[in-house]
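Action item from last week, closing it out:
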Amino acid sequence: MKWLLKSEPDVYSWDDLVKDKKAVWDGINNNAALKYMRSMEKGELCLIYHTGDERQAVGIAEITKTVYPDPKLDDPKRLVFDIKPKSKLKNPIGIADIKADPFFNDWLFVKIGRLFVVPVTDEQWERLMKMAGM
């Protein structure tokens, strides 16, 4: 499986991840997103999507450590995982471009925009990578 991870770029951006070389992906409290996180596996790829004013996918990261309880919180239900940057997209993929393609109409990212962790099928990933010029 592959994933789309949403991030507020003014809180933590793709450039921050590249600079840091790795990151603990935290701050997720939506039950559906936490459920998806539990099925992540080391080595899977993630599309990093900037929310806010940017509203575009900008890079690809790799999961380096699967979910574990957030060490900063005293709540075993709050989970985190570790990622590292792989590559910047040649062409960022804007939400308008994704929504304009009927292929993505049933994708959870389009249907339920509030999720910060969304699964991406192989077919969706392939289509997104073509859109990004990869």
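Closing note: The CA atoms of residues 104 and 124 lie 8 Å apart.
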